[in-house]
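Milestone 3.1: sequence recovery, worked example.
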């Protein structure tokens, strides 16, 4: 059975932020977060830009992609 759903601007911004976060995570030691924003929809944030995420941003994280670079070599 197939289901069809219309693509809204909100879901489009989520998938765009997800794609950006996944690409950035490949080349980063830091986690990439997708954050819900009332005006912009969803945005991707690099945890390294903020050290520890401020509480007002951490409360709006909807998905996290862990950084893929290892510092073990």
């Amino acid at each position: 059975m197939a289901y069809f759903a219309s693509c809204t601007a909100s879901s489009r911004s989520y998938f765009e932020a997800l794609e950006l976060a996944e690409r950035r995570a490949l080349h980063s030691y830091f986690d990439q977060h997708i954050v819900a924003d009332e005006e912009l929809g969803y945005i991707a944030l690099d945890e390294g830009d903020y050290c520890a995420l401020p509480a007002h941003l951490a409360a709006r994280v909807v998905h996290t992609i862990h950084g893929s670079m290892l510092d073990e070599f």
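Confidence is low (pLDDT under 50) at residues 1-7. The chain is about 30% helix and 25% strand.
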